[in-house]
TrEMBL record:
<dbReference type="Pfam" id="PF04307">
    <property type="entry name" value="YdjM"/>
</dbReference>
<keyword id="KW-0472">Membrane</keyword>
<keyword id="KW-0812">Transmembrane</keyword>
<feature type="transmembrane region" description="Helical">
    <location>
        <begin position="84"/>
        <end position="105"/>
    </location>
</feature>
<dbReference type="InterPro" id="IPR053170">
    <property type="entry name" value="Transcription_regulator"/>
</dbReference>
<keyword id="KW-1133">Transmembrane helix</keyword>
<feature type="transmembrane region" description="Helical">
    <location>
        <begin position="117"/>
        <end position="137"/>
    </location>
</feature>
<protein>
    <recommendedName>
        <fullName>Inner membrane protein</fullName>
    </recommendedName>
</protein>
<dbReference type="InterPro" id="IPR007404">
    <property type="entry name" value="YdjM-like"/>
</dbReference>
<feature type="transmembrane region" description="Helical">
    <location>
        <begin position="56"/>
        <end position="78"/>
    </location>
</feature>
<feature type="transmembrane region" description="Helical">
    <location>
        <begin position="149"/>
        <end position="167"/>
    </location>
</feature>
Amino acid sequence: MDIATHALIGTATAAGLFQTQPALAVGLVLGNVAPDLDALSRVAGKHAFLRFHQTYTHSAGAIATVLAVAVGLLMAGIPVWGELAIGLVVGMAMHVGLDLANSYGVKCLWPFSQKRFALDWIFFIDAFIVGLCFVTLVAQCLCQTDKNLLRWSSIIFVTALMLYVGLRSVIAGRAKRLVNSASNQRGPISIIPTTWSPFRFLVCRQQNGLADTFTLDARSGLETEGEVIAILDENVPETVTQCREWQVMRSLSAFFFCLEIDSNAEGETYTFRDLRIRNFRTKFGKLTCQLDNRGVIQRKTWDV
Ligand SMILES: [Zn+2]
């Protein structure tokens, strides 16, 4: 999820559940936000951002380390800091769990595995979750003097959030079954959830050198906004596939393809896009390589 949604979730949870344990409450809110501080790696450049974002700070290794510190603080008789660290552990686990339900990919098993995992249940900005957070926080502001009501608001919030995530897993499973049963060929398929409707998915299916993209309604199975795009990867020279940007993008997405080749007197320009990511017409990952007539890369643009 985006960092603002994580912060709202942490606040709506902590406000009612830990009214008398401020250290635990602060730790829980910080834990819900802290893993995304890895986005600061963007300062060191695009490569650093792609290498660090949703990796080490979103992992079992990081959570276990903070848990060890928490146990150490509690055993050393420093309960306030110990409680803060326990809150951090719970908040981080909530953060990683929700990011895992998105599509970007999380190295949640690091250091045991370098693989990025993504369940593709919920898009990283989700209208229902943001709405649920706002309604809960407004209700909590209105009933802040009634401790019992405040506690129930957080219990209902956490229960509703867990039920929603569970429901989204069922809907995503149905979307996968619908797409698989409609495909007579077994090529790679990507099914990405969207922001506004839990039933709308962006599908990309690769077969016979073509990318078949469409929008799927997981209730009716209706496929709309279909477009068949030619994959031009076979015409891409090695100079391009050996460049660092191409290799990073291909390692992140099996649906990162060359979709456009422009030739003119000065040389050729190759344009690549990740066809999984089409929500909001984002250009994330778009790479353009301009080669001269000798086949040497003269210019590269990369949207990250
Ligand atoms: Zn995150």
